[in-house]
Amino acid sequence: MNSARPKDKTSPHRTRIQRKNREAILDAALDVFSTDGFRGATVDRIAQAAGLSKPNLLYYFPSKEAIHLALLSGLLDRWLAPLQALDPTGDPVEEILRYVRRKLEISREMPRESRLFANEILQGARHLQPTLETVLKPLVDEQAAVIEGWMREGRIATLNPYHLIFSIWSLTQHYADFDVQIRTVLGEAEGDPFPEAQRYLVTLFTRMLKP
Predict the structure, then answer these.
(1) Nearest partner of 98 among 110, 108, 84, judged by Cα
(2) Tell me: the pLDDT tens digits for 76-94?
(3) Right CATH number for 71-209 from 1.10.357.10, 1.10.357.30, 1.10.10.10, 3.40.47.10?
(4) Is-above-0.90 flag for pTM?
């Protein structure tokens, strides 16, 4: 993933103030991009949200695109880690359920990042397409082959491994990307939707995967 990461104008040996300002820019940009998407975001708005002047922001990142790429690059390293952790030698059902749980945890812990990723894909993956082709696809191919091997051995039900992975993505990321809709439908009395979501998804995939 490092190939997609842009170089900003600070040296590797940043001062405490430089690190603080850079983190403030990225945090503010995450809010703006996850709400407005890349096209709707502006450098002026990001600078204002970060509490910095526009020239100060541009010292750290030369453009809106550079900030966006920095966020996406850091996100994908964490986004792909749970799928990379799928253990071919483990119990198939437990490995897949662990993946489901971790993806749901990421939706709970990183809703802005999930919406940032969703906005990028909805807008045609303008910045991520090379990474999808060179990093995401090979990883999904590799883990789909692992899942297919478990199926051939009769350890889990025979399903299309790619669509199984897609369904895990959609059913877990939904809770971040459509948080407002979920909480509106459930109502305030329901409280945190994630514990019940986990129970539901674990039951669903356990039954689906049963040989």
Answers:
(1) 84
(2) 888 899 999 999 999 999 9
(3) 1.10.357.10
(4) no
Cα distance between residue 112 and residue 176, in whole Å? 8
Q: Where in the chain is the domain with CATH 1.10.357.10?
A: 71-209
Residues of the chain with CATH 1.10.10.60: 2-67
**CA–CA separation, 7 and 5 (whole Å):** 7
DSSP state of 93: H
Q: Are the C-beta atoms of residues 46 and 28 closer than 8 Å to each other?
A: yes
pLDDT digits (tens, 9 = 90+) for 13-64: 568 888 999 999 999 999 999 988 888 999 999 999 999 999 999 999 999 9
Spatial distance between the Cα atoms of 163 and 167, rounded to a whole number of angstroms: 6
State the Cα–Cα distance between residues 114 and 120, nearest whole angstrom. 10
